[in-house]
Amino acid sequence: MTRFLTILLSLFLTLTLQAQDEQKDSTEASLPTDVYAYYVVVTPGNTVASLFGHAAIRMSCPSAGLDYCFTIKTPEIKDELFDILFGHLRVGLVPEETAMFRDDYTKQGRGVTEYQLNLTLDEARQLWKALDDQVARGLYWDMDYVNNGCTQVTFDALYDLMRMREGLNVDEVIRKALPIQTRRDAVLQCLDPNTWWGFLLHSCYAGPIDEEVAPRRLVVVPADGAKVLEQAGLVLTKEEFSRSSVSPLSKQHTWFTPLMASVLLLLLCLVPSPKVDYVTIPLQVALLLLLVALAVFSRSSGFGWNWLILALFPLTAPLGILYMLFHMGSIFSLPQLVVAVAFLIRTLYFIQRKRDYLQHIIHSKKQKDL
């Protein structure tokens, strides 16, 4: 009797599992099979927030009438520059209709290029589900341009998908596509430190952007994400929907370069007149306070600790300048070094002049006592 019940139970379980498999197969068969994924790159604009361009992931299912670009956004920006420098902004992934997404950037005069990805149906479905899950979490990131900008967020979703492919070493692909060591190297490729915006941003950014990180964290520029995907053989087609018609800040040059300005500052600091102190000392203090404020209070930008503080602070200036010399080219530029040397020269002159002035007072007092 017991044996008969065991056989009957086994038969029942087998029939139940078969029914579940048939239901699952039926469900799978009813799902759309025309699911496509695209990596979207928007060219740089003429605002601070758009210096490096923008990245998004487009998911499309024509049979279901669905076509969205998943992009990170924040509704909290009021004053762009101040909020980026000192704000505490929250961002999240948002689905935006592709037609609206393209139209917004086309009106800004920015180019939009889409790279159709060579994904299997299951991979495309997994990617869409992962993006939907992130959207459902709302504004769950603290804005940090170094660690979770648009490129990092979109590329992370693709990275998690690629690393599950057999025979594909994503880290090795990144190293071949992007032969760089730090995230500053990535920025240097598209933001010349000899331009004013390059000089300012490379002066403010330090610490986090110079750290050695895992290969996946080196993909910080939208165009670099496309290079990696092409190197990995994941790009089927490339389509340019609009071309850039604006001059981005990173490409705007002027005859009055940062190097010229730094040399003029150096010459000014060599002038022996005490009146020069009225210009140089307040400027040095203002720069120090700005760098300290950015290192301590700036969250959205991800600036972190800045080694230039050592070079501009009078007591540690020699040590800071020595540090700069050892990192010329990789972290610091010639205009930055010239500025630091100029302030050091003026500081030494100021100390020497005050020393002579104090000695004069002491000598006069001794003469008076006698």
Structural features:
370 residues, alpha+beta
Could you characterize the architecture of this molecule?
The chain has 370 residues and is an alpha+beta fold. Helices cover 52% and strands 13% of the residues. The chain has 14 helices and seven strands. It has helices at 2-30, 80-86, 98-107, 121-136, 150-162, 170-177, 183-188, 196-204, 222-231, 258-269, 277-297, 308-312, 317-326, 334-369; strands at residues 36-42, 54-61, 66-73, 90-97, 112-117, 141-142, 235-242. It has a seven-stranded antiparallel beta sheet with strand order 6-4-3-2-1-5-7. Strand 2 and strand 3 (66-73) form a beta hairpin. Mean pLDDT is 83; it is low at 1-17 and 22-28.
Mean pLDDT over the residues: 83
- Name the assembly state: single chain
Quote the distance from N terminus to C terminus: 128 Å
Write out the strand line-up for the largest beta sheet, numbering strands in chain order. 6-4-3-2-1-5-7
Please write the string of helix (H) and strand (E) elements.
HEEEHEHEHEHHHHHEHHHHH
Shape verdict:
elongated
Q: What's the total number of strands?
A: 7
Derived from helix and strand composition plus strand pairing, the structural class reads: alpha+beta
Helix share, percent: 40-55%
Q: Which spans of ≥5 residues are poorly predicted at pLDDT below 50?
A: 1-17, 22-28
Largest sheet: 7 strands, antiparallel
